[in-house]
Give the backbone structure.
Amino acid sequence: MEQAIFDGWRYLGLDSSQILSKTPREFSILMAAHTERIYDEYERLATQAIWNRSAYHAKKLKYTDLFKRPNGINDNRTADDVRERQKAIMERLEKFEEFRGKFDNEKGG
């Protein structure tokens, strides 16, 4: 228990009452998520280092040469693609008792 409190404070910034309110599984998930967050930050830093190097060595650099913001819209998907994906998700969820009968499959999504 002492190790969990120590790790919770050190890595997650949680005090002992917050740590003790978590189940061991929840605490394990939080610790794994924290590790992934650190890896994400390392990836961002590596990308930034590459961008800095590219910017430093480029003759004529434009902002879009380093980064072009995605527009968030996948133009390749159609409404039918979305409906099929939703239908597949609902069919998977209906296998679980708590979701059984919650979706009206007759309307097609």
